[in-house]
Specification:
CATH topology of the largest domain: Immunoglobulin-like
Shape: globular
CATH class of the largest domain: Mainly Beta
Radius of gyration: 25 Å
CATH superfamily of the largest domain: Golgi alpha-mannosidase II
Strand order of the largest sheet: 6-7-8-13-10-11
Largest sheet: 6 strands, antiparallel
Distance between the termini: 35 Å
Number of domains: 3
Low-confidence stretches: 1-38, 49-54, 344-372
Number of strands: 28
């Protein structure tokens, strides 16, 4: 696992990730930040790990945002976005306002960049002489330059190499009103100060749009309770092991893969319980349970969620009955298999996959489920645009255009269309110049 935290990426902060770089300033944005794990593409990159965040020293949004810019643009492995950061629930940070938008909005923008801009391999890594700037080029279908500034006070000029074609005008896709032109194989740009965590630019040619439909996914996850881990071992007191986010009318299968049965008596067992749990984790309603004796390792408890009422949280609890003592390490391994929901509301977050919400975490890397091809012309457009699509099978077609704030600018239900090519013409007269998403 590669773990990147913004307190280690900001100039003037203690650098615990790479102590050799110095105990006060992290030094230059060295290459170690992009190769600190032996197999980067198989790593999991994390900013805000719930189990290590203390109430007295939380990793606040203004400190976390640059880190999210890093892991979502560099694109190694599977970047993880903390649900506590992304969500606008009452106990989360998503509603925190940073530069006229909330934290959820900024993270969502970076996830969009991760999906549509920051793809392909990486080249042209660059540091400014003072070490404040780290930049690189991503070489996917939409070549992109990423810049990060660790100076919390001052913007810093970057003079970064690029192989993007000469004369290409690059615009920022993260709400900084900044453009730059490729000249003599270089991009010269002032990267904003890292004020409130916004010291980053994601720059590509203008007019790039894209959206995707998050799909449901079958998920299998394992949790281990042990004195050496953040989940305690079993005891004679009931405890919550995990929470999972499950779709309607889907099965949850909890398997108690293995557990310590040393010196168990005939009446000793482990009790597993599945609860329907409120978003604030304060209300729990038991929906299924069973006990496991000393020869039932690997057996399962299965529950099918309600057919209506929307997806929701389910928590899995464990309790020992008649354990021989209260001090031994009654370790266990619990596995849950379930269908995670897409949970996409009618807003900008339609483009955000929210597939896995176990222990308040979701994974922004998902596979698109639709295979339809879509083209838009002209792009950029002035008065009208034509959306042309190819359907692999007959299906209902709905077209919607939203702006960067999530406001619906156009919506049309086209009805059922046969397989093959179709198109729709949309009047955009009077629209403000900007970037829009077509779905």
């Amino acid at each position: 696992m590669g773990t990147f935290q913004t307190k280690h990426l900001s100039w003037g902060a203690t650098n615990e990730v790479n102590p050799a770089a110095g105990s006060v300033n992290p030094g230059a944005f060295g290459i170690y930040r992009s190769s600190m794990v032996t197999a980067p593409n198989q790593s999991v990159t994390v900013i805000n790990e719930i189990n290590t965040e203390s109430g007295s020293n939380p990793l606040l949004p203004t400190r976390a945002l640059l880190g999210y810019a890093y892991i979502l643009t560099i694109g190694y492995g599977t970047p993880i976005v903390s649900y506590k950061d992304w969500s606008t629930d009452a106990d989360c940070y998503g509603s925190t306002i940073i530069d006229d938008h909330n934290f959820n909005y900024h993270i969502s923008k970076l996830i969009w960049c991760h999906k549509f801009l920051c793809t392909g391999d990486m080249s042209n890594e660059y540091n400014t002489p003072n070490g404040h700037i780290y930049s690189f080029q991503k070489n996917g279908p939409n070549p992109t330059m990423v810049f990060m500034n660790s100076d919390k006070v001052n913007p810093v000029e970057a003079n970064a190499p690029t192989t993007i074609p000469e004369g290409t005008v690059l615009v920022d896709y993260t709400d900084h009103d900044i453009t730059a032109t490729v000249t003599n194989g270089k991009i010269v740009v002032n990267v904003p100060a890292n004020k409130n965590g916004r010291g980053y630019l994601v720059m590509a040619a203008a007019g790039i749009i894209g959206s995707f439909t998050p799909g449901t996914s079958t998920v299998t996850q394992e949790w281990e309770g042990n004195k050496d881990l953040s989940i305690p071992p079993a005891s004679n007191t009931q405890q919550e092991v995990c929470r999972i986010w499950v779709d309607n009318n889907q099965s949850i299968t909890s398997a108690l893969l293995d557990y310590d049965t040393s010196n168990w008596a005939e009446a000793t067992n482990l009790h597993i319980e599945i609860n329907k749990t409120s978003l604030d984790n304060k209300t729990h309603t038991k929906v299924a349970s069973r006990t496991f004796n000393n020869n039932q390792k690997g057996q399962t408890l299965t529950y099918t969620t309600a057919a209506t009422g929307g997806p929701g949280y389910y928590s899995v609890w464990i309790k020992g009955n008649n354990l021989p003592d209260s001090v031994s390490n009654w370790w266990f391994r619990l596995q849950n298999t379930y269908k995670a929901s897409q949970t996409a509301p009618e807003s900008f977050n339609d483009t955000i996959p929210t597939l896995v919400k176990a222990r308040k975490v979701f994974i922004p890397d998902t596979i698109e489920t639709n295979t339809e091809k879509l083209s838009i012309y002209p792009n950029p457009a002035h008065n009208t645009i034509t959306a042309e699509y190819i359907l692999s099978a007959a299906t209902d077609v709905r077209i919607r255009i939203i702006d960067m704030t999530g406001k619906t600018m156009f919506s049309s239900t086209e009805g059922k269309r046969v397989a093959g090519k179709g198109k729709a013409t949309i009047n955009i007269t009077g629209w403000v110049s900007g970037v829009y998403f077509l779905q």
